[in-house]
Design a protein that fits this description.
473 residues; alpha/beta; Rossmann fold; seven-stranded mixed beta sheet; 45% helix; globular
Length: 473
């Protein structure tokens, strides 16, 4: 019997969309408009690499214009292709709708291997890519706002901003053309950890609901939960670090492209991160066992599995081997549509990517707002709040005849810094969104998984925008 081929990333997203659409009761024409990508820009441009020239293949896809600007990261990978970027752009639309961030979805991709390029070559490619976007009006504070993704970071975003301002000199809101910038280049404190911290806030809320944890055979709370993480990049590292240090979880396994390490008693992820930085590999980490087949980490026995690498990691051919009770999709599309069905039958809770990794776009929204307001969060109110709290503490001390220590007074009376406000806003966003998704699943009894519920919630919000705007009179 011939093996049925696994759907690609775009086909998986489309299949998940269709499954959810059946529960919305929305007109088919409206659903089709929401589903399709509005604009696809495929480009090829030459860049001098040493003594030769290389033609670079790149993309920018704007999935939905129901809200502007569109928003989405730029991925640097030798595996980039148009369908992948289209899938990522569509997920961005649904993600923004879920967490009530007023953007349409977009995504960019440049087909290169960052590891094989020098910093100078990466800078040339980034600046030329930005120039192409400017020429076609595919970037701007009110048009399309890129951000980091796999293979890019704050450095590349700084190059994009500098290139944009070179072409758009005098544009007062130019800094808002891109997010994920360095803090000293109009960035925001807390952006680098945002996606990972969002994963923690989401998991913390997921694990707080007694009814759901009982169904999985788990206790409530993050403390003591065992976690395996695929990918020690920005998202995987911060998610693991915060789950470990703030949630009390135990990291039992971590994987990267060179292999995996395992220790049932726990791995200190900060020490592992420093070990990899010093040696170039996470293998041979003291106290941990090497697992040379890196994908075996997906089959490790644990409470929570966090795939934080690339799409299509859990497929129909390995889904039945999963031993985790909860899968937190920190990457985009790590579980295929077919694997989702198998996992649902197994009773595994899959917390979908379009929700759990929305921390990045949420804090990018805060950065965009900061750039448009031209002012650091907390600057206006921090000292006022601090003085108010000091006066309140002083009044209580006077009325009771008792005083508190200096350390306690500082803790009680401190005003909020930018990072405090960013984290507070992110936590509120993730908690609110989860209860909306869970509420949708509870109301519609025929929906049995969080992914379908998340899609339904997103589609209802997006359709409301379309109908309010009168696009479908």
């Amino acid at each position: 019997m011939a093996k049925i081929p696994e759907p690609n990333f775009l086909e998986s997203v489309s299949k998940n969309f269709d499954k959810a659409a059946a529960h919305t009761g929305l007109p088919s024409g409206l659903l089709e408009q929401i589903k399709v990508c509005n604009s696809v820009y495929q480009m090829r441009f030459p860049v001098k690499m040493g003594k030769d020239y290389k033609v670079i293949e790149a993309y920018r896809v704007q999935h939905s214009h129901h809200r502007l600007p569109t928003k989405g990261g730029i991925r640097y990978s030798h595996k980039v292709n148009q369908e992948e970027v289209m899938a990522l752009a569509s997920l961005m639309t649904y993600k923004c709708a879920l967490v009530d961030v007023p953007f349409g979805g977009a995504k960019g991709g440049v087909k290169i291997s960052p590891r094989s390029c020098t910093p100078l070559q990466l800078q040339k490619i980034t600046r030329r890519y930005t120039t192409e976007l400017i020429r076609k009006n595919f970037i701007g504070p009110g048009i399309d706002v890129p951000a980091p993704d796999y293979g890019t970071g704050a450095r590349e975003m700084a190059w994009i901003l500098d290139t944009y301002t070179t072409f758009k000199g005098g544009e007062i809101d130019a800094a808002a053309c891109v997010t994920g910038k360095p803090v000293n280049q109009s960035g925001i404190i807390g952006r680098s950890e945002a996606t990972g911290r969002g994963v923690y806030y989401a998991l913390n809320e997921v694990c707080s609901i007694k009814e759901d944890m009982k169904a999985l055979g788990l206790e409530t709370g993050m403390s003591g939960k065992t976690i395996a993480i695929q990918g020690l990049g920005n998202v995987g590292y911060h998610a693991g670090r915060i789950c470990q240090n703030e949630g009390g979880a135990i990291i039992v396994a971590v994987a990267e492209y060179e292999g995996s390490v395992y220790n049932k008693d726990g791995i200190d992820i900060d020490k592992l991160f420093r070990h990899r930085k010093a040696t170039g590999s996470l293998l041979d980490f003291p106290g941990a066992k090497n697992m040379l087949q890196r994908k075996k980490i997906l089959e490790v026995k644990c409470d929570i599995l966090i795939p934080a690498a690339l799409e299509n990691q859990i497929r129909t051919d390995n889904a039945s081997k999963i031993k985790a009770k909860i899968i937190a999709e920190a990457a985009n599309g790590p579980v295929t549509a077919g694997a989702q069905e198998i996992l649902s039958e197994m009773g595994v809770m899959v917390v979908p990517d379009m929700y759990i990794n929305a921390g990045g776009v949420t804090v990018s929204y805060f950065e965009w707002l900061k750039n448009l307001s031209h002012m650091r969060f907390g600057r206006m109110e921090k000292r006022f709040d601090q003085n108010t709290y000091n006066n309140l503490v002083g009044t209580v001390e006077k009325l009771t005849g008792k005083t508190i220590g200096t350390k306690e007074r500082k803790m009680i009376t401190r005003g909020a810094d930018e990072v405090d406000l960013v984290r507070s806003g992110l936590e509120e966003t993730m908690i609110t969104a989860y209860h909306e998704i869970r509420g949708t699943m509870k109301r519609k009894k025929q929906i049995t998984d969080l992914r379908t519920a998340a899609f339904v919630s997103a589609l209802q919000k997006i359709s409301s925008d379309y109908l309010t705007l009168g696009i479908f009179p």
